[in-house]
């Protein structure tokens, strides 16, 4: 009885030593291609790239790579000798974006090493988006301070402000590893000082209807700040303690010389939560007050643009060209965080336009809701001035 079977064409490559073989490989289709050896922790970045190009040149639906015959860890005498003569096991080139860019990282994620399929401009472009977001937020802080002092109203809810300050401190002192990162967070913190001053100065009048909050605004803000500091520090420490935390494979993500530590996804979750609190709090504050004290269209525009450029804009660009490490943008929790923030930020200018139609401006610049007793507002303002 005749036996039936499936003919299979196989190609086996061994010990290619990182040499380009595109012109020597067979042109006809192969069923299975197998590369044996060479790809180990001893390999250089260029060797990986050449081997990948060799494999890409093979017309085969199934390609297998078996790492290995240069792994000495199972040969105890040889391995001990290697340890005695040890140099860092990770090639210094792996800490850089590319082998020809001999420079340290300049911004968060700029030390990432994208896969060969990603364009060379990906990391620089994401850095530009992040930097643009930083600039927009700096402008937002300046506008917040001016509007707050002019209208005698807090520019930002207490809880989001405390969380935001804590997040910036943790990232400035612990997570950042590059000069541009540190400069960005240092500027954020420096520009936050006037915002903090304006908030504490105008809090007694803004919270006149809640005397307990008005008298203890500074203490409440301090409690939120300490809680946010502990929470962000613990989360960042846990995230960076082990490789491959988060969604997908993190090869190419480097932090302080440690492979597979993704500060981009870390910032996505921690900054995303802080931003959601900011967006929800700002909209709720506007609705509760019924006036635009401490708020303006320019503040909203800078805040909205800074958020979109620095968070979803950067991460969705990375996901489009590097989905293996950035699939977290489609996680259900991501959709909730980004969707909630986006909905509140989009609704904000329409609510602002509504309250501006009915609000009133007092002689000293204070803005009040249209249904507020002006005499009561004047007395509250007078008491506040006398106290100061």
UniProtKB/TrEMBL annotation:
Locations listed in the record: Membrane
Keyword Transmembrane: yes
Keyword list, A-Z: Membrane, Transmembrane, Transmembrane helix
Taxonomic superkingdom: Eukaryota
Membrane topology: Multi-pass membrane protein
Domain (Calcineurin-like phosphoesterase) ranges: 11-74
Record pathway: Secondary metabolite biosynthesis
Family: Belongs to the paxB family.
Entry keyword annotation includes Transcription: no
InterPro entries xrefs: Calcineurin-like_PHP, Metallo-depent_PP-like, PaxB-like
Transmembrane region(s): 121-144, 156-176, 182-200, 220-240, 266-287, 299-322, 328-351
Any one Gene Ontology molecular-function term assigned to this protein's record: lyase activity
Region annotation Disordered: where it falls in the sequence: 95-114
Protein name: PaxB protein
UniProt-listed SUPFAM superfamilies: Metallo-dependent phosphatases
GO cellular component, as recorded: membrane
């Amino acid at each position: 009885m005749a036996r039936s079977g499936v003919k299979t064409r196989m190609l086996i490559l061994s010990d290619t030593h990182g040499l380009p073989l595109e012109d020597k490989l067979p042109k006809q289709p192969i069923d299975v291609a197998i590369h044996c050896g060479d790809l180990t922790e001893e390999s250089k970045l260029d060797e990986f790239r050449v081997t990948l190009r060799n494999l890409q040149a093979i017309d085969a639906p199934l390609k297998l790579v078996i790492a290995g015959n240069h792994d000495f860890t199972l040969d105890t005498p040889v391995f001990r000798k290697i340890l005695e003569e040890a140099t860092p096991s990770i090639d210094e080139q792996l800490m850089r974006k590319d082998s020809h860019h001999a420079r340290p990282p300049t911004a968060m994620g700029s030390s990432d090493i994208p896969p060969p399929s990603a364009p060379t401009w990906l990391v620089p472009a994401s850095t530009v988006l992040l930097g643009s977001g930083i600039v927009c937020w700096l402008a937002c802080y300046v506008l917040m301070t001016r509007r707050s002092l002019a209208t005698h109203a807090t520019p930002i809810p207490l809880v989001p402000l405390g969380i935001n300050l804590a997040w910036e401190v943790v990232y400035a002192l612990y997570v950042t590893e590059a000069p541009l990162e540190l400069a960005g967070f240092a500027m954020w913190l420096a520009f936050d000082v006037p915002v903090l001053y304006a908030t504490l100065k105008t809090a007694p009048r803004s919270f006149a209807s809640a005397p307990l909050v008005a008298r203890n605004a500074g203490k409440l803000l301090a409690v939120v700040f300490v809680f946010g500091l502990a929470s962000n520090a613990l989360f960042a420490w846990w995230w960076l303690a082990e490789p491959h935390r988060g969604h997908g494979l993190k090869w190419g993500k480097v932090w302080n010389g440690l492979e597979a530590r993704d500060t981009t996804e870390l910032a996505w979750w921690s900054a995303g939560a802080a931003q959601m609190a900011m967006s929800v709090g700002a909209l709720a504050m506007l609705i509760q007050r019924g006036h635009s004290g401490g708020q303006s269209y320019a503040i909203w525009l800078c805040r909205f643009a800074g958020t979109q450029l620095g968070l979803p804009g950067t991460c969705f660009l990375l996901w489009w060209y590097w989905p293996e490490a950035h699939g977290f943008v489609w996680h259900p929790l991501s959709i909730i965080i980004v969707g909630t923030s986006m909905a509140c930020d989009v609704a904000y200018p329409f609510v602002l336009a509504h309250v501006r139609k009915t609000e009133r401006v007092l002689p000293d610049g204070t803005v009040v809701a249209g249904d507020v007793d002006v005499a009561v507002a004047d007395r509250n303002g007078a008491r506040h001035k006398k106290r100061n």
